Amino acid sequence: MKLKMCRKGVSLGTQNASLTLYTDSPDLTPCFQNTVLVWIPCIFLWAAFPFYHFYLKQNNKGYIVMSILNKVKTFFGVLLWLICWLDLFYELGQSRVQHPVKVVTPLILGITMLLATVLIQYERLRGVQSSGLLFIFWLLALLCAIVPFRSRIREAADKGVTDQLRFTTFYIYFGLLLFQLILSCFNEKPPLFSSIVTDPNPCPEYTAGFLSTMTFWWFTSMAIKGYRNPLEDKDLWSLNKKDTSEIVVPTLLKKWETEKAKVQRKNQAVYSTSSTKVLNHVDGGTEEAGVLLLGKNDTKQPSFLKALLKAYGSYFLIGSAYKLMQDLIGFVNPQLLNLLINFTMQKDAPSWWGFALAFLMFFCALLQTIILHQHFQYCFVTGMRLRTAIIGAIYRKSLVITNSAKRSSTVGEIVNLMSVDAQRFMDLTTFLNMLWSAPLQIILALYFLWQYLGPSVLAGFAVMVLLIPLNAAIAMKTRAFQRFYVATSRQLKRLESVSRSPIYSHFSETITGTSVIRAYGRQNAFVLISDKKVDENQKSYYPGIVSNRWLGIRIEFIGNCIVLFAALFAVIERNKLTPGMVGLSVSYALQVTMSLNWMVRMTSDLESNIVAVERVKEYSETETEAPWIVPDKRPPEDWPTQGKVEFNDYSVRYREGLDLVLKNLTLQVKGGEKIGIVGRTGAGKSSMTLCLFRILEAAAGEITIDGVKISEIGLHDLRSKLTIIPQDPVLFSGTLRMNLDPFEKYADEDIWKVLELSHLNRFVSSQPAGINHECSEGGENLSVGQRQLVCLARALLRKTRILVLDEATAAIDLETDDLIQSTIRTQFEDCTVFTIAHRLNTILDYTRVLVLDKGQIAEFDTPTNLIAKKGIFYGMAKDAGLA
């Protein structure tokens, strides 16, 4: 089709072969130069602008103060716009417009340059330090301008300059394009108030330019440092903000809650519609309808995989797009090879054909390498975020699950979810793209094979299918020997392993002391500690990912150079070479074989690893505790004022399906009473105290404290008003002061006072750090008695109206026991005290003693009266030599 843009009878194409191809000095037609070559970068920018604008709206990094670099870019952009419009008005000023192209092209180019200039400022307002879009635009514009640049020089040399103004404006335009391309390689300053400004060791990726990001050049400093000296923790960069637990974990939790709410609404709608239909056909009403509906197993379950895709799918899709581009480019080089073979057959072909093909092969291979490693980068970073999100979600869940749910999951199972299954989520990201990539490569390879071999390709394809098991076995065996680590990579992996251990240690501590963490309301503090440890681990893991990409690009660049030199050798020695169409066919056949092997292996790996999704989903749906705060049921600030506790026909079980451990307890305890709780092993003593904290929820009945039903108020309002000294003292890694006053509510004088009352003053004073003495994990550097006294000091510091001692002196010596009992009698004189007694002599002076037997109240009276009745308590006292 001929478009009369230039002059009559001349098309946009390159139909004049003697001018463009079969000559030692090729050129393109003036019409093609003034239309297609000018429009290509314009079309690219306008096509990409809507998507880029949407991206910038969604990712505002902050405001960048206008710099000299930005001013120069803007100034050159305005100059380019003015030059384009100068050409337009110059043509319009002519008495008669000879060719429409001379008006249309400057108009399109001028509007495009105006858009590019506006984008420079818009990117600055959105915090973009280096623009990949504008870099590609300037590069395309410059490459497309090289042909007119050469043509005008030749024309001026042959015929002289016929149009002085256009000749001058074009070379100014070309120079400005070159300057813009160079300037786009430099970065702007970080956005105002950005975290990177205050970060002492920021990751250079955040401020890296487009070229540095694509080639991972920003990692070179660490590669050099790791080669020269062993890497240390201080050498690691801070984690990028978007990769931290603070951002990653809430994103997944929000999407998961949204998915569950969506499915719940759909199920309710289905139930409502179905119940209406059933009621219209069933006589007898709702009961029969309910039976029919319950018989249907058509309730929809929320999909954890959907939540993952919604949270991180958009980022992963960018990597998939890179993979698609890499696959398509992978089939360009064989076609170029085919052209190169044909070139060697044509002895009279111009030499520039071969050189052009050689450089095109090099360029395609280099582009393929860069795109492939960008694909890997996006896949592995997505996997890293998945791992962070899974660990964070499981940790948060473990802090709020009910006691019955906790008993159904062992610590080992939970830790396994955080370690093995979280790692499998990372592995899945590399498998998913191969599920569609491998079939695509096979289809394309077979298509091209069909072009050269025809129907005979089917026979070869059948043979390859039969050889899949052998090829897969060879590939799996080969992969075992393909593990090579440079010095930097080894050290990064070592640092990653070292920093991973504290995550599991902290998690184990948390699981062990969950009840204490809940009682003190320290969930958020422990979540922050966990997030910090995860981020420390990711700081060393992320450079490990980048090191693979960094090394891969450089090694494959050498391979690309080999392709270039081989192609150049074929050009130079073409007279001695014979064509080999077999080589082209073999390359496609190898592509099919490799893709089939990958598809088989990735499918099997995906199948084995997808189970991790189900396990994490199952754990995320376990039952959680009651709300932390119930806004419309909050008790008064000074509650409880008396400490009166009542059990009204109270029963409890550890989880559904098990027998009751407490059965129909009914008792009243006045404020200030001291109640001893005794009974044989399994009588329900500890269960009764757990019920006070609502660690176990009631199966029937109620517990009230000063007339307030504890089942109606939030857990924080309840547990913050109770104090417990447990049988097994719980201490956390940190200072002694932190273990006593985690909220930092009290002054040092108050701390020393309770240490004196708990008889720890002498020990703490003897330590060089005093109250800042460092406690090891679980308080292992303290004796059992000292740990118990620390718990007593903690209780003295809070001094709530209700105190629970759960066999607090069972595992300590008599001297420490006497100290604790003495302090309790004097310091908690006006408080209600529940003591589960191991040594009966400690409760003989108590107000009353509650004797439990098989979860029921067997006796409840003063110690004197119980001994006089000669019942169960009398027998226990007699066995202890007290009666």
TrEMBL record:
The chain crosses the membrane at residues 36-55, 75-92, 104-122, 128-149, 170-186, 312-332, 352-372, 431-450, 456-475, 551-572. Its EC number is 7.6.2.3. One of its GO terms (cellular component) is membrane. GO terms for molecular function: ABC-type glutathione S-conjugate transporter activity; ATP binding; ATP hydrolysis activity. It is an enzyme of class 7 (translocase). Its main location: membrane. InterPro entries: AAA+_ATPase (IPR003593), ABC1_TM_dom (IPR011527), ABC1_TM_sf (IPR036640), ABC_transporter-like_ATP-bd (IPR003439), ABC_transporter-like_CS (IPR017871), ABC_transporter_C-like (IPR050173), P-loop_NTPase (IPR027417), TMD0_ABC (IPR056227). Belongs to the ABC transporter superfamily. ABCC family. Conjugate transporter (TC 3.A.1.208) subfamily. It holds the Pfam family ABC_tran. Gene3D superfamilies: ABC transporter type 1, transmembrane domain, P-loop containing nucleotide triphosphate hydrolases. Keywords: ATP-binding, Membrane, Nucleotide-binding, Repeat, Transmembrane, Transmembrane helix, Transport. Residues 645-879 form the ABC transporter domain. It is found in: Endomembrane system. This is ABC-type glutathione-S-conjugate transporter. Residues 317-608 form the ABC transmembrane type-1 domain. It catalyses: leukotriene C4(in) + ATP + H2O = leukotriene C4(out) + ADP + phosphate + H(+).
